[in-house]
């Protein structure tokens, strides 16, 4: 055996001396982002790093409102903000649906490995012509982080609700003024980055027309703030998991009504109905409304200085910390499961703003476990 290998070794040595080195693939062992930045020589490498945004210019990386799926930035730390310590990665068309940030905002902060050519991109240290992306859970529907809900694994009923409360109560809180800009991001029209989609009416409207005037959009509290009298102070009054853009007059028409089927058509809100004690949004977002209400019921349990919010099967709940009807909300969630818009919204809130999730978007089946 040794005798048969000797000619190969001799040939390899001779070729190396002649400048035809036979070396292992540089892509075999992943390198760091710092190494990749220092090795912009056109060689092939696999680079492991954390997704920290999307490069849009030589010294500009955006962390939200991603314009497309064409590029991402990697760093050796998920908290890196200096572009000089980032590697700009070009995303070929084959990988955009799974690793483009517009389609997969949940990749922010995730660790991935990319194999490609170490060459400048946006006149910045980069990696181009990628042949492989791995890690990060990249897909057109990245779902929830597997470890986020780990403390709830195997639980049902009251135990599940308690575990989820603990998990989602770890959040960054916004001021009521900060909500304006957050909603311009979370509710952005997928077909027009200059607009937001109004929740109940479904209208696409310019982000800049927020305010209190006729036909402006304002901040609708899906869990009406008078149900528990929590107002707009930081806490449930500023939690963007249930705050949505809506036309001023439609917001007023909903008021603090509970949710139920029936009623007559609401002006400027196609598909919406209301009567003296209840409101029903258009069918396409009834599940969204239900999951927002149930999120609030799990997040705010009365132990952190805020009222204990709960759904019930009544209307006319007034200032009590209740909203109905639970049976209708459960039916709405089953009939209108989470769609791409709602899932993206959950990801953006998680990755960019509050850093907590609505568990019923990730796991709608938990609704009937907690409220059988």
TrEMBL record:
| Coiled coil ranges | none
Q: What InterPro entries does this protein's entry cite?
A: Endonuclease-I, His-Me_finger_sf, YhcR_N
| SUPFAM superfamilies cross-referenced by the UniProt entry | His-Me finger endonucleases (SSF54060)
What is this protein called in UniProt?
Endonuclease YhcR N-terminal domain-containing protein
- Ranges where the Endonuclease YhcR N-terminal domain occurs: 31-133
- One Pfam family named in its UniProt record: DUF6359
**Is Nuclease found in the keyword set?**
yes
Q: Which residues form the signal peptide?
A: 1-27
Instruction: Specify whether Nucleotide-binding is a keyword of the entry.
Output: no
- Entry keyword set: Hydrolase, Nuclease, Signal
